[in-house]
Design goal:
The protein is an alpha+beta fold. It contains ten helices and 14 strands.
Length: about 325
């Protein structure tokens, strides 16, 4: 098995306790944020950091004539590092409730589901909107890299303006995932960055400072995102979902075509499109009505979902409808 695989594959390598806890979180994540279905992960090559070469541009080469030399050139790349963020949740349950429910571990895990769901939502949001400059304990997500048409050309060229204005906009992401392009990371020496621990019976205090006893579960999840080659992500930004009608629909499909073709080499990894519920619904309706030949309904992960030019459109509810206009 490759060392850059999905979290489901990493979970399969774990011990039974960690595997069960992690798969539960992944299942919750995948229901509304399916990026974890396809995002490959690898261990960091420097403890909690992934150090990699980022391609800036291709080196100069030349045709060589007989008895004429060639000027040496260097690969135009730079060393960058990507860091992991650490998330922790402590789930506490009154021991009386445990006794009433027969000291059932299954019931206890069901009560902990709210904590797992909260971790799910925070991790998904960070994948798209995280910024270490704002929250040093987290990690940097896609939006912090592709934030303006006025930034460095290498990144700015990967942003397509869908024409919306104001502060009620959304984005669609076209990504080519692989160990050489975009992938998730987790600290070296950990079980896919995830750890579950049963802290057992512990002393607790209520809001008034009174003491009682309960059982505590501890969840830790450390991960990050590496964007090793900027040319393999395209952000279709400034999308106003209220205007996806009439001639605006045709214009939006053109943006999708441009986004797909902006990916340097779609065959280099796993292609996926990430959109929120509103956009996914728009695509599903268009595919069902067969109003656009580029949209088809095919099987992916055992389910029928809409594809654009053969690329699955995966729902990620963490992508907001309240983004500000990108300029």
């Amino acid at each position: 098995m490759s060392d850059c695989v999905t979290l489901q594959d990493w979970a399969a390598r774990m011990g039974a306790q960690n595997q069960l806890a992690m798969q539960k979180v992944i299942e919750l994540q995948s229901k509304t944020n399916r990026i974890l279905d396809v995002l490959p992960f690898k261990q960091c090559n420097e403890k909690t950091r992934e150090v990699a070469l980022m391609r800036a541009e291709l080196p100069d080469v030349a045709w060589r004539l007989i008895n004429k030399g060639t000027k040496p050139a260097k690969s135009k790349s730079k060393t960058v590092s990507f860091t992991c963020g650490g998330m922790e949740a402590l789930a506490q349950i009154d021991e009386r409730l445990m006794q009433i429910n027969g000291n059932s571990n299954a019931w206890r895990m069901s009560e902990n589901a709210a904590f797992q769901e909260s971790m799910n939502q925070k991790m998904a949001t960070t994948l798209f909107y995280g910024d270490e400059k704002v929250n040093p304990a987290g990690f940097t997500g896609l939006s912090a890299y592709y934030y303006s048409k006025k930034q460095d050309k290498l990144w700015a060229d990967q942003i397509i303006d869908a024409g919306g204005t104001g502060n009620n906009l959304t984005s669609l992401w076209v990504v080519c995932l692989s160990a050489d392009t975009v992938y998730g990371i987790f600290p070296d020496g950990t079980s896919a960055g995830f750890k579950y621990r049963d802290n057992g019976r512990v002393a607790l205090t209520d809001a008034d400072g009174a003491k009682y006893y309960g059982f505590e579960s501890q969840y830790n999840w450390d991960m990050g995102l590496a964007v090793r080659d900027p040319r393999y992500v395209v952000r279709v930004a400034n999308i106003d979902t209220k205007k996806l009608t009439g001639t605006d629909t045709d214009a939006f499909v053109e943006h999708m075509i441009r986004a797909y073709n902006q990916i340097e080499n779609p065959d280099k990894g796993t292609m996926a499109i990430f959109a929120n519920r509103q956009l996914q619904t728009y695509f599903d309706i268009a595919a069902a009505k067969k109003t656009n030949v580029r949209l088809t309904i095919d099987e992916f992960g055992g389910k029928k979902i809409t594809h654009f030019w053969g690329v699955p459109i995966l729902r990620c509810d963490a992508i907001l409808n309240t983004e500000s206009q990108i300029q």
